[in-house]
């Protein structure tokens, strides 16, 4: 995964390096934010390549790439062995739909990731989670001891996972927590952002009389509901649908959007680009 | 079309009246905003019935309904001869997609309405409109003479149409104009309201990195982009789509949503209920 | 739920009867297969009404309806206490997605039905099912003893449920079994019927190069994949999606379509009309 | 646009050639039908690159590519100056929706192609077409003189266009005609193929009670409705929709699917791969 200032010759250099090293490209995606400006150094370039490489050729491979290619183009880059699944930690409150859907998909090997633990500020979902053979940690979040709660979560998360996903976790994470964690955090918001940011989106959607309700998966930043969007989808509602029906249909689209976003992140298909994402 | 405080016996009374008068119900739709409260006078009830009635039985029919049924339940009601299409006036600026789609549907008899005239603050679309055999009125709207422009429009619209539709009319209509007009006005907004209210929605959508863009047809009220929503739809976009591509795809969903809303209104299938709509 | 030859006065008679008996209509839907023919006795009429009725007025209510209304119009009709959920038996083979989704919705009270037992020709899913507190019956279906297997299933199903649902049950049910069962049976077929009837639909879809794959829930009849369709939906695929990806995405749309069909059936919202369905 | 047997080094060779020649890649897409087999010569590889090249470097550029790159990998390839739009000829019968939608998009510069002429076996649409400043040719197709009709069409098409598109042209083109024409032909079929191949798809869809109707754009081959699919989409219908409503909604999805397929073809984004397509 590569990003750098756009300029001629990047693909040639990367693909030539891979070919010479004996790698075989399986899949390749690229995106220029402003392709016609590349000659003049404008725009950003993003490249994602999947390739196979024989085990006996891997030693020093990444270092060589860094020296021979990445440095020349001042690339931000990372290389990931796709046989090594990302470790996912789940935070959840009491709603089970996003969590269970994710656990099912994980068990069916649909997720290309390893779920490693579940943390909740409630006890409710313990037996469901443990039935999947996963550890469940209860970390209460009383209004007067959130700092301690977040501290406890940090201990449970750091060094144990590569990404944290919020499967309807109804607590706001502090900026200090996010900084200390230093890992990507994915949230599912139950509306079509930027409509209905904040609390009670279905109730406000019902009052506004919208004809579609949606869900948005995004990276969490210090700005509430303002982080880069990974995926969104909607489902149709009518005047005849009650608030309960909004919530029921919303749950359906939430769990699908959430699972897609987690999967794509774990397949290293999402790159942040300012406050937006490039999804390959 | 009937709306009134919900209470037992409404359907029985209406259908009994129609049966006794020799009418045959073709289609019937109803909606209670709070059905379990009807026994206690809570909630609102909405009823729409299509029926046939022999020509020689129509005299005095509406009056009888008023006296025998509507008064008893304190109904707000209207009766409309569906053989008499609604007269539609179109306001447009320079974008042709919503206008042409509507004119074409009208020519194909898809609209169940009569388009009677087109008014624009530009000359651009005259020949397209006249090719459909429709009168085209150019009413300029210079910043310093909007009052005069709206006055001229009032003369062109009043008594000549039953509904005014804005097929991408890029001027804000004043509250005075709307009051003086006294007719329903339908607008197409090029975003999924309430996201991106106001100007430049596609540009803001691109900046926010949304994965879906939408369109919203709504009744115009004095509050900009705040009126009751009739219909909405969305279309998928990706990071790779330019602003121009957002606009192109948006145009596609705009014209469909707009045509649906106009059609439903002209078939008397939309009732305003506070700041929302009931669409049968 | 009422169906009969279309004719004037049906709604008036039914709603007048309900009003006089003290019932309050909560929801009403109707459909005429040929509304303009009603005066001449053509077309079929379908009516579904939900109503509340005080407990002390229920005695003899259904009988009175039969004598006073249904007989007069020669109606096919049934009345169902919605507080009494339908009993659902599930047949499944080894694929878990439709089953688990259904059990989870049942636990969340989304289904408006009672799942009472699960029968499988494999042992695989026993622990998943038992974790929901449901009995799991293993009824093998060896090619040379299908008759015995179906006999055993009949014993397990008859008198124990109101509807049988096939959550990816990969055995063909014989006409004798269906006749002896005498209950509605709902199947989920993993394609957009009538495309790709029969076995291997995803493989054939991949070979044909379709751009959408779908799922169809239908009532089972003696004609394989030919019964009345209750619900269908599709999901987009591309040339780049492997057969495995077709199957994964297909599973997603299968479980949603299946759950919708089961729910609608259990809410008494589906009427068979020849080889089609009316879904209110 | 390149296709060849998959093997290591293709991307490196192509991108190195382009870089050395001073070209700047604007967009690149690739697809391996079986990426893990590339080392052993299995699978097919497809590559599409858009690039800019200064005018003074174009002489001999394509020849050099042929000699230095294409020959080495035994590529099937073509290079197209995107500033030179494809020339499109339209065949149509009496239905105007696919035709007019295409002509609008062409006039709005949405199509990235030049529509050059319209041929019809009816006179009906002449004035509509001529209003766009396009020549309209009436070529009757009486059952006893189809051969002469096709001969006349050949004269009108050959050397005058790069692709022929059937905007609801209700005549079957003979294999002899297709062979003699030697150009790609795109058809819009009014169903979700392979469901409802042949005549009367909406009528058969209504009888079968489907819940979605669709449209399919595909390349025409000698096998009726059997050619490679370019694009498909569907729209929801219910039991309450009449056959006329099926046709009306179908027309909407037909014209969108058709316009997408024509656009993608004219942007050189579609490659035939056996009886399927790769759409970049």
Lay out the secondary structure.
The structure is a homotetramer of 280-residue chains.
Chain A: E1 2-5, H1 10-20, E2 24-32, E3 44-52, H2 61-73, E4 76-77, E5 86-92, H3 97-107, E6 113-120, H4 126-130, E7 136-138, H5 146-157, E8 163-166, H6 175-181, E9 185-189, H7 201-208, E10 212-219, E11 229-236, H8 243-266, E12 270-273, E13 276-279
Parallel strand pairs in A: 5-6, 5-8, 6-7, 8-9
Antiparallel strand pairs in A: 1-3, 1-4, 2-3, 9-10, 10-11, 12-13
Helix pairs in contact in A: 1-2, 3-8
Quaternary structure annotation: homotetramer
Q: What percentage of amino acids of chain A are in beta strands?
A: 25-35%
Average pLDDT level of chain A: 95
Number of helices of chain A: 8
* Topology order of chain A in helix (H) and strand (E) letters: EHEEHEEHEHEHEHEHEEHEE
CATH homologous superfamily assignment of the largest domain in chain A: Formyl transferase, N-terminal domain
User: Which class do the helix and strand fractions of chain A yield?
Assistant: alpha/beta
CATH topology of the largest domain in chain A: Rossmann fold
- The number of domains of chain A is 2
Widest beta sheet: strand line-up of chain A:
7-6-5-8-9-10-11
Name of the top-level CATH class of the largest domain in chain A: Alpha Beta
Largest interface: A-B, 29 and 29 residues
Instruction: Please give the alpha-carbon distance between the first and last residues of chain A.
Output: 11 Å
Q: Can you put this structure into words, describing what you see?
A:
Four copies of one chain form a homotetramer. The first copy, chain A, has 280 residues and is α/β, with parallel strands linked by helices. Chain A has two domains: 76 residues, Alpha-Beta Plaits, CATH 3.30.70.260; 194 residues, 3-Layer(aba) Sandwich (Rossmann fold). Chain A has eight helices and 13 strands. In chain A, the strands form three sheets. Chain A has a seven-stranded mixed beta sheet, with helices on both faces. The first copy, chain A, has a four-stranded antiparallel beta sheet with strand order 2-3-1-4, covered by helices on one side. In chain A, α1 runs antiparallel to α2 and α3 runs parallel beside α8. Chain A is globular, with a radius of gyration of 21 Å. Chains A and B meet through β11 and β13 of A and β11 and β13 of B.
């Amino acid at each position: 995964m590569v990003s750098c200032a756009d300029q001629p010759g990047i693909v040639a250099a990367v693909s030539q390096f891979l070919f010479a090293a004996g790698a075989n490209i399986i899949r390749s995606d690229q995106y220029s934010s402003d392709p016609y400006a590349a000659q003049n150094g404008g725009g950003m370039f993003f490249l994602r390549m999947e390739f196979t490489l024989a085990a006996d050729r891997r030693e020093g491979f990444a270092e060589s790439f860094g020296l021979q290619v990445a440095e020349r183009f001042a690339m931000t880059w990372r290389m990931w062995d796709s046989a090594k699944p990302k470790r996912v930690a789940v935070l959840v409150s009491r709603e089970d739909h996003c969590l269970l859907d994710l656990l099912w998909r994980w068990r069916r090997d649909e997720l290309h990731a390893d779920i490693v633990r579940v943390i909740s500020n409630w006890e409710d979902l313990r037996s469901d989670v443990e039935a999947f053979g996963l550890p469940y940690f209860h970390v209460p979040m009383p209004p007067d001891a959130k700092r301690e709660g977040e501290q406890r979560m940090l201990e449970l998360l750091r060094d144990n996972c590569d990404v944290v996903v919020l499967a309807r976790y109804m607590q706001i994470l502090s900026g200090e927590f996010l900084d200390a964690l230093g890992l990507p955090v994915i949230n599912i918001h139950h509306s079509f952002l930027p409509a209905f940011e904040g609390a009670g989106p279905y109730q406000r959607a019902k009052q506004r009389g919208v004809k579609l309700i949606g869900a948005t998966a995004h990276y969490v930043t210090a700005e509430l509901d303002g982080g880069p969007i990974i995926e969104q989808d909607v489902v149709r509602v009518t005047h005849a649908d009650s608030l309960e029906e909004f919530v029921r249909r919303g749950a359906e689209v939430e769990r699908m959007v959430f699972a897609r976003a987690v999967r794509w992140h774990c397949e290293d298909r999402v790159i942040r680009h300012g406050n937006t994402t490039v999804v390959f």
